[in-house]
Amino acid sequence: MYRSPPGARGFLIAIGLLGGALIAATLFGLLMFWALQAAFPRPIDSAYPGYLILVFATLVLIPILVLLGRRFPFLTDWYYLLPAITFLLAFTVFPIILTVYYAFTDYTGIRNGKPDRSTETTIVRVEGRRLFVDGNARELLRCDQPDCAGQALEITTRTQRARMRVEQASSDTITLTAPPPFAPTLVYKINEFSFIGFRNFVEIFSRAGTVLIPVLLWNIIFAVGAVFVGAIPGLTLGLLLNNKNLALRGFYRTALIISWAIPVVISVQIFTAMLNVQFGPINRLLGLLGAYPIPWLTDPEWFKVSALLISLWLGFPYWMTATLGTLSTIPEDVYEAAKIDGASGWQTLTGITLPLLRQPFIPLLLGSFAFNFNNFGLIYLMGAQPGVEGRPSTAQAADILITWAYKTAFQADGGQAYGLGGAISILIFFLTVAISLINFRFTGALKEVR
Amino acid sequence: MAALGRYLGWALFGLIAAWLLFIYVPNLLARIQPNIPPGFVRVENGWVYALGGLLVIVGLILAYAWLVTFIGNRRAGRKRSFWPLFGQGLTHLFMFLVLVFAYYPVLQILAASFDPRNTLYRILPPASDNLLVRARVIPDFSQLSWENYIKLFDGFVLYPYQAVLLTVAALCLLLVLILAGYRRIIGDDQSDSRWGRLQGQSLTAFALLSFILVIFLSPAQFTGQGTEAKFMLWVRNTLFVSGITGILAVLLTATAGYAFARFSFPGRYSMLLVFIFIQMFPGFLGLVATYILISNLGLLNTFTGLVLAYSGGIISFGTWVYKGFLESISKSLEEAALIDGASKWQVFTKILMPLSAPMFVFIFLLQFVGTYSEFIVANLFLTGVDSWTVGMGLRNFTTGQFSTRWGLFAAASVLGSLPILLTFYGFQRYFVSGYTAGSVKE
Asked: What is the rounded average pLDDT for all residues in chain B?
């Protein structure tokens, strides 16, 4: 086949061939890895590194691709996409699929499907399916069931490991459901997680009134607010600096980009220090103007105001630059014509400049909204938030969906409930898709591609 | 219909404004406790003085504008209004205030970095005649020292050959800066002029030398006691990870962007959609899954693992931007080359790659800057002070278990943001054009 078969068939053939090659290569890598382990066993605490699988897979993938390219020359077009696709599959798609799966389980920091090293128990003797331990097996393994029935275990020797299940355990004996493949020396309990269906989603929606809805509402307000507090000052500055007669305009323009150029991890932390109630310079300055100390970071409502204030500082240079960039594309003669017709400065602004800015600004506004909707860095780096009654510590006053999900999944006070965090991520995904679809509809980006 | 929509819009806007003004703001103000903590300077009705001062300045500008225009008109015998000059004066005043707003955090952090006394949480006001200093609105510069910076370099051993490399690299950077200034003065904006080429060469030399330095700097050279003495090692780690991630981003997106822009294979549109929609899943919530993957590959606590974890992040956006860039280039040259018997790969490497340098620089810089200040993923994948990144180190200074080491945080922030500040200002053009090129098509 020199030319690609047209339409969906060609697409499916190409995807099938490439996917087949990738899967075959990965399987080969795995087989080689296992073969290596079986042929030259190494102790499990210094086992062969897993990336050898990737090395073996790459070694076999290249000849496969060359052969496929000879047989189906049209496939070479796809080879240009292959590096990007492979990395996307491995480091984006695979984690997404796994996260979606976890969203339907009760996976947490403890129930993570891994052997619990604190339950390490020495096996003194093995007889058929029975393992004899030194001491009370039930206490050593800390089983969920009283007789440990159905408990998953990991048994190891110095070079081998396997997963088994318990039929029952008595005082010093563990009876497995099947005889172990080798004589183990150590045994660990495995903290299993299980499939729980939609229970995570039910939990989110059953408490929607106190958590999901307030968080989502604030999330939208924050995203809209952050766009406006950045865009309006930025637009004003851009319009002012567009005045060709203004001295130093190049200097102002360059100097004001500073907050765009400082890494967010630094600037947000500086701001949280500056907004300190008692010691922060901002309250000190306001104190000189007659204000009492403002609880910027200690009051839930003021915390939100602070988040928007920091957004203003972070966001205006982008909008200033965007305004200046767009204005530089408006031809000069439009203004001259307006001047000849006797338009005042205000009329020129509202009649010419702003309408001409609208078209290029819509995609920027929507893009900025989408960015701020998931602006994890800002909210997370602002640090500990004042508590709001009736809400969990993972979803406080200024928490947006993404920080809520992160704190649920990764912080100790959220119980590292990764399954629940995954469920929130799925909600975020659908919301982001909805926003982007609106974005594409407005900008026509997808039409253009077609 | 349109008119109705507009009225509704204004009505909604009015409602929101009224709610903000009459309900939300009073509520916010009611939350302020009218008590004064110790050391807090409050001036009753201070805003009256401030406003008065501002009005005086405006008056002075008005007088100046009127006077200058009056004298100018007298001399040249013409009649011009003084309002445009007044407007410019006001603009300058406004810009000055904006500059103060933008640089105030920078000033504070600079002052804190030179202050050895950890000044953020001190109750006693500094002894000064200046009210602004006493209220600590303007930092107290009476005790300047390099102590915080010295702590960051404590016990850092630089081998002689590295010192030589560092000097040469610094000289190259200096040359770049001098040339940039000189070329601006003589109005030379051609990149292939004599000076332009020299500037490009010295920049490349600087990049290469820094890369060599970054690679050959080893943890053994940091013999200081405290964690903060490893700061330069963190910078090195961060530069290494960010640089490799940036290069990987360019490598992965370049060919994909080319294929999307120039080939018309079946399934192109669907693949583009897949690329876009994958990007919408909140990336780092796949972290546990990525963690499991990297841990199974045996790459935990290695920079390779971290780079791999970052690599997925920019592929979609980079491909999309590069595709847009290529579509804006005329196809005629490539078509001629294809007719002359060049292969697609040759067209890409010989014709398009040299043209795409600005876009590659943009993609590289975007990923470089993004990775540089990232700390969540790094925090999960790297353990041990020796492999920390700048973001993790900075976070450690402010959330350390003992106390907030504010002075060290400040000094580290100043030094840590320098590489990004330099890249940003040095490549401003690429950032601005890249963002606008990307956003128009986005």
From this structure: 85
Nearest chain A residue to B51 by CA: give it. A289
Q: Does B272 touch chain A (CB under 8 A)?
A: yes
Q: Report CB contact under 8 Å: B441, A448.
A: yes
CB contact burial A28-63 (16+ within 10 A = b; e otherwise): bbeebbeeeeeeeeeeeeeeeebbbbbebbeebbee
| Closest-CA distance of chain A to residue B407, Å | 12
Alpha carbon of A7: minimum distance to chain B alpha carbons (Å): 5
Which chain A residues are within 8 Å of B252, Cβ to Cβ?
83-84, 87
Query: Cβ B106–A429 below 8 Å, yes or no?
Result: no
Cα–Cα distance, A347 to A343 (Å, whole number) = 6
Contact between B324 and B437 under an 8 Å Cβ cutoff? The reply is yes
Query: What tokens appear for B265 in the block?
Result: 């294979």
> Chain B residues with CB inside 8 Å of A245's CB?
84, 88
Domain locations in chain B as residue ranges: 48-113, 159-216, 227-441
pTM above threshold 0.95 = no
Chain A residues in contact with B439 (beta carbon < 8 A): 322, 363-364, 367
Q: In A, residues 218-277, which contact B (CB 8 Å cutoff)?
A: 237, 240, 243, 245-248, 252, 254-267, 269-271, 273-274, 276-277
Give the pLDDT band (50/70/90) at residue B401: low
**pLDDT by residue for chain A (450 residues), tens digit each?**
567 777 788 888 889 999 999 999 999 999 999 999 888 888 877 788 889 999 999 999 999 999 999 988 888 889 999 999 999 988 888 888 988 999 999 888 888 888 888 888 888 888 888 888 887 877 777 777 777 788 888 888 888 888 888 888 877 888 888 888 888 888 888 888 888 889 999 989 998 888 899 999 999 999 999 999 999 999 999 999 988 888 888 889 889 989 888 988 889 988 988 898 888 888 888 888 888 899 999 899 999 999 999 999 999 999 998 888 888 888 888 888 888 888 888 888 888 888 888 878 887 888 888 889 989 989 998 888 888 888 888 888 889 999 999 888 888 766 788 888 889 988 998 998 888 888 777 776 666 555
Number of domains comprising chain A: 3
Tell me the pLDDT tens digit for each residue of A98-148: 889 999 998 888 888 888 888 888 888 888 888 888 878 777 777 777 777
Residue A97 lies in a domain: no
CATH superfamily name and code, B227-441: MetI-like (1.10.3720.10)
If asked whether residues A142 and A164 sit together in one domain, one would say yes
Q: Counting Cβ atoms within 10 Å, is residue B354 exposed (0-12), middle (13-18) or buried (19+)?
A: exposed
- CB nearest to B137's CB, from A255, A273, A285: A285
Q: Which domain holds residue A333?
A: 202-449
Q: Is A164 exposed, middle or buried (0-12, 13-18, 19+ CB in 10 A)?
A: buried
- The CA distance from B122 to the nearest CA of chain A, in Å, is 7
Asked if B101 has any chain A CB less than 8 Å from its own CB, the reply is yes
| CATH classification of the domain holding A311 | 1.10.3720.10
Partner B contacted by A10 (CB < 8 A): yes
Distance (Å) from the alpha carbon of A206 to chain B's nearest alpha carbon: 23
Among B141, B47, B420, smallest CA distance to A262 is for B420
Chain A residue nearest residue B96, CA to CA: A252
3-state SS, residue A225: helix
For residue B438, how many other CB atoms are within 10 A of its CB?
Answer: 21
For residue B97, which of A256, A289, A269, A264 has the smallest C-alpha distance? A256
Is A100 a domain residue?
no
Report residue A251 as tokens. Answer: 């200097």
Residue A305 and residue B299: Cβ atoms within 8 Å? no
Closest chain B residue by Cα to residue A55: B297
Whose CA is closest to B58, among B99, B92, B82?
B92
Task: Quote the pLDDT of residue A401.
Answer: 92
